[in-house]
Amino acid sequence: MSKPVLLWLRRDLRLADQPALRAAVDSGSPVIPVYVLDDKTPRHRKMGGASRWWLHLSLQSLAQDLLQHDSRLILRRGRSEEVLAALAEETGAETVHALHHHEPWWLNAEKAVAKAGLDLQLHHGNYLAPPGSVTSGAGTPYRIYTPFWRALQQHMPPPPPVAKPRHIPAPAHWPKSDDLADWHLLPSKPDWAGGFRSEWTPGEKGAHERLNDFRDEARHYGEGRNLPSQEGTSRLSPHLAFGEISPAQCWHALEDDDSEGAQIFRSELGWRDYAQNQIVAMPDYGARPANPAFEHFPWRDDLDGLEAWEHGRTGYPIVDAGMRQLWHTGWMHNRVRMIVASLLIKHLGIDWRAGECWFWDTLVDADYAQNSVNWQWSAGSGVDANQFTRIMAPLTQSEKFNAGDYIRQWVPELAGVEGDEIHNPTALVRRKTGYPEMIVAHVEGRERALGAYRVMKTAAG
Q1: Are 60 and 203 in contact (CB under 8 A)?
Q2: Cα–Cα 20 to 30 A to 153, which of 2, 66, 220, 317?
Q3: Cα angle 330, 331, 337; round to 5
Q4: Are 244 and 207 contacting, i.e. CB atoms less than 8 angstroms apart?
Q5: Calpha distance 205→287 (Å, rounded)
Q6: pLDDT tens digits, residue range 402-440?
Q7: Among 109, 461, 426, which Cα is nearest to 293's?
Q8: Which of 322, 315, 317 is nearest to 341 (CA)?
Q9: Is residue 34 over pLDDT 80?
Q10: What count of Cα atoms within 13 Å lies in the side-chain half-sphere of residue 318?
Q11: Residue range(s) of every CATH 1.10.579.10 domain in the chain
Q12: Where, residue-wise, is CATH 3.40.50.620 in the chain?
């Protein structure tokens, strides 16, 4: 029997439309799938608690799928290059197949694996087009989304998805694997993930079930995605974040749908590609403002304000509903994400990086590129960002997007408030229900934000 090859899995936990798996199988060699829990590679950003919950169930699902193909999933912990080198020595493998990943810590890990003497074969497959492949006429990366999206469409559709292999050749002897339970990815007491289980089905099967449901709903996506009280979003984001489904599969599932909703969804897949291209150009996007002027921004040191925001006690019902939904389900409606980010950054004057870190820990769809780009969009500090001086009014946003039922669901002390009063309960209702007063009034918060912005402009020259 020929030497086995290693299949290094990261955020690509699927069997269908998996180019690294396909290449490993097509090599004719036995294939050893391995997932490395790597919290040690330099510059590594340790996966947040909500993501670790998802990871446990996704790995569990993948392991079951592999067993149906007479294969196994090998689990190991440690630095990627050390684990893979040890596995290569144990099994006689010399080649590692993997999908490209572009987060700075994965780039470091890939370099280290190659330096360890392994033949690392990297394949594209987690984005519509390989990051860095869509450039301007001058050959430079696009900084603005609209021209990027226009150019990306010239490369579309992506190649048709490839079916999962019928058979994955197994080695004569399997190396030892960690027990998934020993990784303690699931929360212990208190079980803060109780609400997650009724909301999500991690794994490739769950991803395709969700895509099939969305295919029937996509034509309404244009109007429904902005209304928090409706189930109008795709809810595919965590499945895409963990690579349980590919963007090409999502694109081709809607290829015959020319509705406005389907086109908007495709453009959001394009935004996912755009964000990835930004971290390729600027690996520190999650830690440093893309606009250097914001290095001078006078952020407020307000731990009480941050805690009130994190726990949904700001006194703005739409914001508090979003933050409580996040804590309970590991997810937040995308319109509400913009509103809560704007309040933290502008009304409270708290550094966007504090919000980005909270989302990283609490979102099941946490993605370094999108999280970083979206937060810097809200802060006005990104390469293609909302102007800082455009400050969302949470109460107006709540009424405009009919968030009443959403608030009643996630802020139960206000469940009995009827009519438009739900968006801004009276002082009497707040006293009776124990719901807090606004942490800062909109006008006051807006003026404070504009004042801080003027200070930054002066300091930056």
Answers
A1: yes
A2: 220
A3: 135
A4: yes
A5: 35
A6: 999 999 999 999 999 999 999 999 999 999 999 999 999
A7: 461
A8: 322
A9: yes
A10: 31
A11: 292-460
A12: 1-125
Residues in the chain: 461
Which DSSP string do the residues of 321-356 spell out, in sequence order? HHHHHHHHHS---HHHHHHHHHIIIIIS---HHHHH
Cβ-based neighbour number of residue 165 at 10 Å: 18
Specify the pLDDT at position 25: 98
Q: Which two tokens stand for residue 119?
A: 């033949």
When comparing pLDDT for 18 and 45, which is higher? 18
Q: Which residues make up the CATH 1.25.40.80 domain(s) of the chain?
A: 127-161+203-281
As a whole number of angstroms, the distance between CA 391 and CA 400 comes to 15
Pick the CATH number of 292-460 from 3.40.640.10, 1.10.579.10, 3.40.50.2300, 3.40.350.10: 1.10.579.10
Q: Which CATH number fits domain 127-161+203-281: 3.40.50.720, 1.25.40.80, 2.60.40.1120, 3.40.30.10?
A: 1.25.40.80
What is the spatial distance between Cα 82 and Cα 91, in angstroms, rounded to a whole number?
14
Residue identified by tokens 């608690």 is 49
Give per-residue pLDDT as tens, 316-355: 999 999 999 999 999 999 999 999 999 999 999 999 999 9
The pLDDT assigned to 23 comes to 98
The percent of residues in the chain predicted with pLDDT above 70, rounded, is 100
What tens digit of pLDDT does each residue of 98-156 get? 999 999 999 999 999 999 999 999 999 999 999 999 999 999 999 999 999 999 999 99
Q: Cα–Cα distance between 171 and 184 in angstroms, integer?
A: 29
Residue 189: pLDDT above 90? no
Per the CB < 8 A criterion, the answer to whether 185 and 57 are in contact is no
Pick the CATH number of 1-125 from 3.40.30.10, 3.40.1190.20, 3.50.50.60, 3.40.50.620: 3.40.50.620
Q: Is 313 exposed, middle or buried (0-12, 13-18, 19+ CB in 10 A)?
A: middle
Q: Average pLDDT of 231-244? A: 95
42 vs 75, residue with greater confidence: 75
pLDDT (0 to 100) of residue 1: 64
- How big is the CA angle at 169 (ends 248 and 204), to the nearest 5 degrees? 35
- pLDDT for 131 equals 96
Identity at 5, one-letter amino acid code: V
Residues 6+ apart with CB under 8 A from 81: 109, 112, 113, 115, 116, 118
